[in-house]
Design goal:
Elements: E1 2-3, E2 6-19, E3 22-33, E4 37-41, H1 48-55, E5 63-68, E6 71-73, H2 77-80, E7 84-87, H3 99-109, H4 114-127, H5 143-154, E8 161-165, H6 173-188, E9 192-197, H7 200-205, E10 208-213, E11 216-221, H8 223-228, E12 232-238, H9 242-249, E13 255-261, E14 264-270, H10 276-281, E15 291-295, H11 299-306
Parallel strand pairs: 4-9, 4-10, 7-8, 8-9
Antiparallel strand pairs: 1-2, 2-3, 2-5, 5-6, 10-11, 12-14, 12-15, 13-14
Helix pairs in contact: 3-4
């Protein structure tokens, strides 16, 4: 099971999850290669968590097929759970147990023998700066400390594939940056990772991403490739009346989106317009603008063009 000579760790075809008449995931196709961080990017309600829960075997698909690490899901879900790690969106360990007690309990659940259990607990406590906190009750830890404990628990049994559901939503920026360095260390050690996020900067860190909206995949690929294939030119405007300019441009032919970022208005212009700067300078709304210049696309521009207002 390879693609471009790389092993496939997840393959899903036509994946659907219905709750009564609501399709939380609607026809999702995925091919995820070993040795990468693959991200699901999308707002709340886009189907990210539902997709993760089907890939881990916790939810049964309504339609479609899923294969994870060569195992058919949900048929082989019991076998799969010893090969994967799963860090949930909300802290799910025991607040009235210490760090050491939580790790020991979960190592037992994973079936680690006494010698291996002791070895792995010592390794993850050292790696994730938990040794000095081993007697701290989990419920008394800070958000960043709980995050490190949750990650340590998820990798105790050295899983081949790690699932992380919005793992940094409750921590500060410094903890987020450190957390992502830990993820790249895991990948270097041979772990493949699937992560959900609604942070654009985190999505740009992934090797590949899928942009989800309303349960459907709107785009996928490497962030750099998606930005290169944007289908729009990005122009920023500096002027005194940015709110008026935005209102005037939205809905105009050739304008895909416009959003204010600080003292500038960021405008997405269809890429079939040869000179987007001249195009905007000719607009009466931009009369008096001090700066109109083309800039580099970012992942948020890709997200806008692939979803919501950019597709209307």
């Amino acid at each position: 099971m390879t693609a471009n000579n790389r092993e496939i760790v997840v393959r899903a075809e036509g994946l659907v999850k219905k709750f009564n008449d609501f399709r939380a995931v609607d026809g999702l196709d995925l091919t995820i290669e070993r040795g990468m961080i693959y991200g699901f990017l999308g707002p709340n309600g886009s189907g990210k968590t539902t997709a993760i829960r089907m890939l881990t075997g916790l939810l049964t698909p309504s339609e479609g097929t899923v294969e994870v690490l060569g195992l058919a899901i949900p048929k082989d879900a019991e076998t799969l759970k010893y090969k994967i790690g799963y860090m949930t969106q909300t802290f799910s360990l025991y607040g009235d147990l210490t760090v050491l007690e939580n790790l020991d309990f979960m190592a037992t659940i994973y079936g680690l023998g006494r010698k291996k259990r002791k070895q792995r607990i010592a390794e993850v406590m050292e790696r994730y700066q938990l040794s000095d906190l081993k007697n701290r009750f989990a419920g008394k830890m800070s958000g960043g400390q709980r995050q490190r404990l949750a990650l340590a628990t998820a990798v105790l049994h050295e899983p081949q594939l790690l699932f992380l559901d919005e793992p940094t939503s409750a921590v500060d920026p410094e903890s987020r940056r450190h957390f992502w360095e830990e993820l790249f260390d895991l990948v270097e050690g041979g772990t493949s990772i699937i992560v959900t996020t609604h942070f654009m900067d985190e999505a740009e860190r992934c090797h590949k991403i899928a942009i989800l909206e309303a349960g459907q995949k709107r785009a996928d690929g490497a962030p750099k490739e998606l930005m290169a294939a944007l289908g729009a030119n990005v122009v920023e405007i500096e002027a005194r009346n940015l709110r008026d300019i935005r209102r005037g441009l939205l809905g105009s032919d050739g304008i895909m989106a416009a959003a204010q970022l600080g003292a500038r208005l960021r405008v997405l212009v269809r890429d079939d317009i040869a000179d987007p700067e001249a195009f905007l300078k000719d607009k009466p709304e931009t009369d008096g603008a001090s700066v109109i210049e083309r800039v580099r696309p970012n992942l948020e521009d890709v997200f806008v063009t692939a979803t919501g207002e950019g597709r209307q």
